[in-house]
Amino acid sequence: MSPRDWFRPPRHLLALFVAATAFPALALGGLAWVSIGQDAALDRQRHQDMLDAAAGRIVSDLKRQLDDAARQVVSPGHDSSLTWPEDSVFLTITNDRTADHPAGRLLYYPRVPAVHTPRDAALDAAAALEFKDRNLSAAAAAFRGVAADPRRAAAVRAAAMIGLARCLRMSGRQQEALGVYSQLAGLDTPTVEGAPAELVARHARCTLLAEMTSPDLQTEAVILLRDLQARRWAVDRATFDFYAGQARAWLPSETASNTNGAQLALADAAADVDTLRRQQNGLPGGGSTMLWRRGRPLVLVWRNAPNGMTALVAGPSWFKRQAAGWAADNLTVTLTGADARLAFGSPDRLVKPVAMQAMTDTGLPWTVRVSSADPAKFPSLLTRSRRTVFGGLAVVGMMIVVGGFLVARALGRELAVARLQSDFVAAVSHEFRSPLTSMKHLIEMLDEGAVPSEDRRRQYYRVLHGEAERLHQLVEDLLDFGRMEAGKAEYRFEPLDVHGLIRDVAAGFEGQLGSSDRLTVRADALAVYVNADREALSRALRNLLDNAAKYSPPTEPLEVILDADAASVRISVRDRGPGIPRDEQTAIFTKFYRGAGVRRSNAKGTGLGLAAVQYIVRAHHGEIALDSAPGRGSTFTLVLPVAKGAQS
Ligand code: ADP
């Protein structure tokens, strides 16, 4: 068994290991799965709760805003422009007029008080000259007279100027007519023909310039439209639409189209509120609702008063102002009014889970829906617990695997050692049994007097002595090995001539082999000294020679080669035997280990020889090297340091 095999536990151990690790791992995995599932459910619940709370907060915020609005609506005179954006307006609506706060926010008014031109005899006479008698010059003179008369009402004089300009125009005196219109526009006259005199005059100028195909038309029409949109005149919707329409018709489309949609929506809404108010039960005592005008959502908050009503109309900016806070809180909000019309937000951006507060429950004019803008930002228990669980699992799993591996390896080692030990016991028994058997046999023969000749008896005693010696040596070797292993071996170091030592061992070994041809010693003539225990070093060399002889065919030569340099001495024992496979080359130096091939061939041995050699070499501060390959023989080399100061 090579050391690598120790890391390869037997199959049943592997199965045990897998079973022992798989069950806890599966149980842990199951537990983790259940706990993650619970955390996910808990997370969903927490997320939903958080959104429900947010929706509740949004509803109460909106309610507070509408209540504020309702309070301001009751007395809208204060500086509401500070808190209400540009596209919102407070209205005070009475039977004959609608007022806006802050003033001038409406493009046009639902109604403006009608101003009638008082009847005037001179004016009627001038009109008769114009229409009945068709006497334009006389009519012009009569109109001029009325217009210039300071005793007459301003409205009458303005109407006379209109008549004068008309007569001049019809008589082909356009330039003069234009002058009269300009004069009228400059007067501080409130109304003529049911509209502001300035507006009527400037419009009439434009009409005339159009007839004359004058290049001045463009300039005047642009200013007229701009003044209309800048709310220069308080007009009703019909008047606004008429004059704005006329002005636009005179202008190229790109100049005409810059109408403020938000302001139009606001004015439309005001007009609608007025209409609703007049209808029977159109608007009950007070409340809030949504209006959609020109594709824009508007909030209406109103209170009825004894002689009319006060209201707030707020455009989309109001929603946008609310939304700033929602976005900061990582919320996506939609507000839908009656008929599921969208007042704010985009439903596509709602992601599950969604919290909802229905308009029927809250009394608000919208149903509120809330979701997280980015659900990933929701502080999730799950991600945290997942991380903890997986981290814990990884650690526990690793501990199980490493622990299992160590146990399996330790068991594998124990088993290997146990097997080696039983091999060793078998080998040692064998080593003892054969000499003991022959000794027993010889002793029996001697005892029975079955050996007649004295020579033969002596020979038997010699054999008995030899066998007893061998057994003694065997026991000594075992005891020596035990001492080496326990670190209790004693060495007597002295400078030794390596050459001499090799010669002595080789001679003894040749005697043992019974032949002097097989072993060759090749050594430098120079004597080399090492600091060594003669007995121990001889034993190491003998062990190597024993193995070389034992494991190679008897006909193959053996060599001992001595080689040295200034620092070290190398004593190599070379044979031409079977060689040692690479995967056994380390293991053979461990105690009890015997090569697979050797065990098959039943060669004698205990597996202690090389282990003992290694102990001895190490005690001499040297090392043992092996160069071997199957079929190519083996060379074991003892490398020892040269004795310092020893003389050659
Ligand atoms: P033993 O010789 O009693 O088996 P050793 O410790 O001396 O024990 O040797 C261990 C093993 O090394 C041997 O069993 C054998 O497999 C292998 N071995 C040692 N020397 C040689 C050699 N010269 N040629 C081939 N194999 C050898």
Overview of this structure, please?
The chain is an alpha+beta fold. The chain has helices spanning 3-6, 11-74, 121-131, 136-148, 154-170, 174-186, 197-211, 216-229, 237-249, 253-256, 261-278, 316-328, 359-362, 381-447, 454-486, 498-513, 534-551, 596-600, 609-619, and strands spanning 88-94, 98-101, 191-192, 195-196, 286-293, 296-305, 308-314, 331-336, 342-344, 355-357, 367-372, 494-497, 519-522, 529-532, 558-564, 568-575, 623-628, 634-641. The chain has a 5-stranded antiparallel beta sheet. Strands 13-15-16-18-17 form a 5-stranded mixed beta sheet, covered by helices on one side. A 4-stranded antiparallel beta sheet has the order 9-8-11-10. The chain is rod-shaped and about 195 Å long. The structure holds adenosine-5'-diphosphate. Adenosine-5'-diphosphate (ADP) is lined by residues 547-548, 551, 575, 577-578, 580, 588, 593-595, 598, 605-611, 634.
